[in-house]
């Protein structure tokens, strides 16, 4: 049975929800869509291909049945360093005691196995080693052969396969692991919409991903860079020159760098993305307490609200929707916070990032919307470029973006303030675009007689990044 549309249909801020054991059923996915989920994140650090294929098929089935756009984000595991398999599955690290870190091949007899072969070669006395998302801390005291002797600074229970962070090292690891490459091929075959690269350190990491996608027939696949390493922060400008989208991955970023630096970095990254009209997702621990509780803490609600005030395109749920007890309630809570915050948003009008016609028209959008009471902005796009620039202007009217390309349709579903509509074919004439915009908006009850709308498009049609006109139009009877 088709669910009634969400009252948050025209919410500007998008919601990304990670799919996991708690949300992999048809009923929960339907409820999350109705609550406001726009993007489903598939975490390839967990699960096998059979599980992922079944999940992707189910997500597509439900979205099609609900006639609702749902974007599939494939999140690659990346070069994550992990602890090996421990005896009895865990060991207790006691503050002040010594432990030994060794390559995985020597773990049973020598100490705790780590799957980073260069640790002994690169480690220096005084270097920090963080385990299990920074909950456990070691400091290097000595290196002998392949064995790195550490003192426990912050103890606790260490379980098998937990993550290892080495903030002081510029790791000699490939940006794309063999597992990532296999996962990418699987994602292309399954028709995912966006691929997210983990632990990006430099722009070249993204170029490698783009080259791999092109070699496998997916050169038009949007790529997202996760900012979670100090090197990524240092190389942010170059990374933004290659990435289609950005994720402020506050979890590992807050482990690799001092946690007090993360709030300001979040604001700086979002602002730079807004300036360049690059969509940005704010992620990790947004409603962490809702893994176990039906309501978030006041601090979490403030955190989400501040990310929206900063200008984030989307807010993301991780464990809250993947393994939490209240996945639907968590989506509803993000939607409710956005509904309360968005009427009060006031963004600075930044200068155009590029001197091209689309950016110039984007600047005009801001001025026109400040003078005229517009019902909507309609744009026609082959690549999503026009909608991306319009979204970056952060105008108050909703942006209705028309395309005839499914991949572009799903891409635009991530963009702030954009409602994508998939057409069988795009109109080829100026008059045709006006007619389609008017008819579609009236049919969908997005506009009525007498409403003013703006129309953006390009003539000749079907020219990538060829937007060259803007038309003020009044809806007829």
Automatic annotation (TrEMBL):
Belongs to the pyruvate kinase family. Keywords: ATP-binding, Glycolysis, Kinase, Magnesium, Metal-binding, Nucleotide-binding, Pyruvate, Transferase. Its cofactor is K(+); Mg(2+). PANTHER family: PYRUVATE KINASE. Residues 360-473 form the Pyruvate kinase C-terminal domain. Its EC number is 2.7.1.40. Residues 11-331 form the Pyruvate kinase barrel domain. NCBIfam families: PRK05826.1, PRK06354.1, pyruv_kin. The lineage of its organism: Bacteria, Bacillati, Cyanobacteriota, Cyanophyceae, Acaryochloridales. InterPro entries: Pyr_Knase (IPR001697), Pyrv/PenolPyrv_kinase-like_dom (IPR015813), Pyrv_kinase-like_dom_sf (IPR040442), Pyrv_Knase-like_insert_dom_sf (IPR011037), Pyrv_Knase_brl (IPR015793), Pyrv_Knase_C (IPR015795), Pyrv_Knase_C_sf (IPR036918), Pyrv_Knase_insert_dom_sf (IPR015806). Pathway: Carbohydrate degradation; glycolysis; pyruvate from D-glyceraldehyde 3-phosphate: step 5/5. The keyword Transmembrane does not apply. This is Pyruvate kinase. It comes from the Bacteria. The gene is pyk. It catalyses: pyruvate + ATP = phosphoenolpyruvate + ADP + H(+). It comes from Thermosynechococcus sichuanensis E542. GO terms for molecular function: ATP binding; kinase activity; magnesium ion binding; potassium ion binding; pyruvate kinase activity. It holds the Pfam family PK_C.
